[in-house]
From TrEMBL:
This protein's record includes keyword Glycosyltransferase: no
Domain of life: Bacteria
Topology of this chain in the membrane: Multi-pass membrane protein
Alphabetic keyword roster: Cell membrane, Membrane, Transmembrane, Transmembrane helix
Compartment(s) of residence: Cell membrane
Single GO molecular function: amino acid transmembrane transporter activity
Transmembrane segments: 6-28, 40-62, 68-88, 109-133, 153-174
Major localisation: membrane
InterPro entries tied to this protein: LeuE-type (IPR001123)
PANTHER family linked: ARGININE EXPORTER PROTEIN ARGO, ARGININE EXPORTER PROTEIN ARGO-RELATED
Organism name: Oceanospirillum linum
Protein name: Threonine transporter
Pfam family, one: LysE
Gene Ontology terms: cellular component: plasma membrane
Length: 205
């Protein structure tokens, strides 16, 4: 992969990372409730799943999505149920100004990572995206281990930058809310966003 191709690949993935979808909405909701730092495990989990799909695409294993369709369906429903549960907890939580934006109130690093991984892994169409996307930047018939490694690193950095930018914006916006009434609205908004992301995962084909 040339420098120009790598740079274009990075920019394209950054844009892909901030494109609205269940993952972005989940990051937005968590950032509003617990601050930007708490979004890091979720973002890393989402990116880890994407990199798995990226590697599968590089290895030409497009048929995986078809052969393991049942497993993907189970993962999708588990991820959707988890998002709905977290969204409900956010929606019904009582305003607490002392905990606003406090990462210590979050569900934990492992839970955040698993949640993010499930959100991304629940969409087997991602592998098809990479299959269509990668040939624009590299010849998949002559890939080396270095090419796959470079693509994985660029994917990690680009997606992490995009997702954490969204998390930082959400956290900044939530800090503008100081009254108990505004925090209550924030809780309900974040919970609604999270539940909407869960419903999208559950209902999409």
């Amino acid at each position: 992969m040339s420098f120009e191709s790598a740079l274009t690949f990075f920019i394209a993935l950054f844009i892909f990372g901030i494109t609205p979808g269940p993952g972005v909405f989940a990051i937005l909701a968590r950032g509003m409730m617990f601050g930007a730092r708490s979004c890091l495990p979720m973002a890393v989990g989402m990116i880890a799943s994407d990199i798995v799909y990226l590697i599968l695409a590089c290895l030409g294993l497009a048929a995986v999505a078809e052969h393991w369709g049942g497993l993907f369906t189970i993962i999708r429903y588990v991820g959707a149920a988890y998002l709905l549960y977290l969204g409900y907890k956010m929606f019904t939580s009582k305003p607490d100004l002392s905990q606003q934006g406090n990462a210590g109130s979050d569900q934990g690093v492992i839970a955040g990572f698993i949640q993010g991984f499930l959100i991304s892994a629940s969409n087997p169409k991602v592998i098809l995206f990479y299959i269509a996307f990668l040939p624009t930047f590299m010849d998949l018939t002559v890939l080396t281990t270095q090419d796959i490694g470079l693509a994985s690193v660029l994917t990690f950095v680009a997606l992490l930058a995009g997702l954490m930018l969204i998390a930082a914006f959400a956290a900044w916006a939530s800090k503008m809310l100081r009254s108990e009434r505004s925090v209550n609205r924030l809780n309900k908004s974040a919970g609604g966003i999270m539940m909407s992301a869960g419903a999208y995962l559950a209902l999409k084909s």
